[in-house]
Specification:
Layout lengths: L3 H28 L30 H4 L20 H16 L3 E8 L1 H4 L3 H11 L9 E3 L13 E4 L5 E4 L14 E5 L3 E8 L8 E8 L6 E6 L5 E7 L4 E10 L1 E8 L4 E9 L4 E9 L2 E9 L4 E8 L5 H5 L4 H5 L6 E5 L2 H4 L8 H18 L4 E6 L4 E2 L3 E2 L2 H16 L3 E3 H5 L4 H7 L12 H22 L12
Parallel strand pairs: 1-15, 1-16, 16-17, 17-20
Antiparallel strand pairs: 2-14, 3-6, 4-5, 5-14, 6-11, 7-10, 7-14, 8-11, 9-10, 12-13, 18-19
Helix pairs in contact: 5-13, 9-10
Length: 480
């Protein structure tokens, strides 16, 4: 008869064997090749919030930037605060399938203020993502003629026109324009409007085979014609309720000429009453209906990533929340990844004036708009850069924004890119300025600073892929 100590020992050994078998079985399923989305859900032993990243990952020149010891490169990664992130696990699955099969498009969006309108560091990210994998050029997607609105235009493309344009920006409170996704608009009353588009100063120039124009809702008072060498319009479809015209082209191009010609009877009448001592006169004035433009989507039939930037100088979350048509326009190309870099202008007030609960409420409302367009969208929250208030006082509100951002990251199981922490936190922008990386306003970066910022974001993205691939046999990253 077996004594009690031996009995307990045998039971203990059996428990270990059962646990080991269960773990081995789980690991076997984990490395088995399958296209199931459940395959990419991260197990507890691969907790996202426990990942230890490398300081440098091949994008940044370590021999150059390691000398800048005031920058916390060790913090340059996507920081998760939960073991799992269903939306980022799904994004990883879609990304792997896109690279493996060359069969799908992924729409990335990045929203911010002046840092994003300039499209310096974001264009670095776009160029990298659209040239990193062969045969995956993606689309340019959303663009806007900022220069025709008399504000700074991204250097990667240009619209030219000799017509008379008036610009509208969502940051101008007195403007009654109903804005869309881009937060900008232009309008012209000219009878014949001509406009040209072309790429410039950018490595990535995805071909264009479909142009979607966002314009007046209802009956458009203009006919539209597109010209490009060797290209014709196969089909033109107008949606009056959405305020769009889709132009499907016979081939691919990277430049085009647009003409908007006024329809003869597309005018309104304005009646004024003039009263004198002797008589009353009614004056009827003919008012042409203007053409309003809210943005363009430049599309094609190629797989890959589109990296869309939404930026308006001086904009905060409160401005984007007021954009009436943002929701419906975002749904036209639902986001797979949405990067929030909004907060610099929200925080640019005194310590007492800044209300963290308001910032959190506004950010959460914007996140809900994104998730309404795609409930599975992966959202990346970025902490704004360190800045000075009126160039004199280190802005302590940025740290308060970081607290809010981390709270939301935990709630939604999404990561944070902590630029504020990477820079060195409070007052770091002065050091960045002394090293030629920041302008004298202690808010905006120099060209070198923006390119460094872009390379750090690219590295963080690649580190995230590496993190997700830690237990994969076949990497989609290039091997050095």
């Amino acid at each position: 008869m077996t004594n009690k100590p031996m009995k307990y020992f045998i039971l203990y050994i059996l428990c270990i064997l059962i646990h080991t078998t269960s773990t081995w079985s789980q690991d076997t399923i984990r490395v088995d090749k399958t296209d199931s989305i459940t395959y990419y859900h991260i197990q507890n032993y691969q907790a996202l919030d426990k990942y230890i990243n490398d300081t440098f990952f091949g994008i940044l020149d370590s021999s150059k930037y390691s000398k800048l010891n005031f920058i916390q490169f060790g913090n340059n990664h996507f920081q998760f605060y939960t073991p799992n992130s269903p939306s980022f696990e799904r994004l990883f699955f879609e990304l792997r399938q896109m690279v493996k099969n060359n069969d799908r498009k992924l729409n990335f969006y990045h929203i911010g203020g002046s840092h994003v309108q300039a499209d310096i560091y974001t264009n670095d990210v776009r160029n990298y993502l659209q040239t990193y994998w062969a045969k995956l050029p993606g689309e340019r997607n959303w663009v806007f003629p900022y220069n025709l609105a008399k504000t700074n235009n991204p250097s990667s493309y240009t619209f030219t026109s000799d017509n008379n344009w008036e610009g509208h920006r969502s940051v101008i409170r007195k403007d009654t324009t109903k804005y869309g996704l881009m937060g900008m608009a232009i309008h012209s009353n000219d009878t014949l409007i001509k406009m040209d588009f072309r790429y410039r100063k950018t490595e990535s120039q995805p071909p264009i085979q479909h142009v979607r124009i966002y314009h007046n809702k209802g009956v458009l008072p203009y006919n539209i014609k597109l010209e490009s060498e060797g290209i014709s319009i196969l089909n033109q479809i107008r949606d009056e309720s959405l305020g769009t015209t889709d132009l499907y082209l016979s081939g691919e191009t990277n430049t085009f000429h647009l003409e908007f010609s006024r329809i003869i009877d597309s005018t309104s009448y304005k009646t004024d009453t003039i009263r004198t001592a002797e008589d009353t006169t009614f004056v009827c004035e003919l008012i042409p209906n203007p053409l309003y433009l809210y943005g363009f989507q430049l599309l094609n039939n190629r797989p890959g990533i589109s990296y869309n930037t939404i930026g308006v100088n001086g904009a905060g979350l409160y401005n984007y929340l007021d954009n009436v048509y943002l929701d419906e326009q975002l749904k036209q190309s639902p986001p797979d990844l949405f990067v929030f870099s909004v907060g610099t202008n929200d925080a640019n007030v005194t310590y007492d004036q800044f209300k963290p609960e308001t910032y959190k409420s506004n950010l959460k409302k914007m996140m809900q708009k994104v998730l309404a367009a795609n409930p599975n969208c992966a959202i990346l929250l970025t902490v704004p850069n360190d800045a000075y208030y009126y160039r004199k006082y280190p802005n302590k509100n940025v740290a308060r924004e970081r607290t809010v951002i981390i709270e939301l990251a935990k709630e939604y199981q999404i990561p944070v890119w902590d630029l504020y922490g990477i820079m060195g936190e409070l007052g770091a922008s002065k050091t960045w300025r002394l090293n030629g990386l920041m302008k004298s306003d202690y808010i905006h970066f120099t060209s070198e600073g923006y390119h460094l910022k872009g390379n750090m974001l690219i590295e963080s993205f690649l580190k995230w892929i590496h993190q997700m691939e830690e237990y994969q046999d076949n990497s989609i990253l290039k091997q050095n």
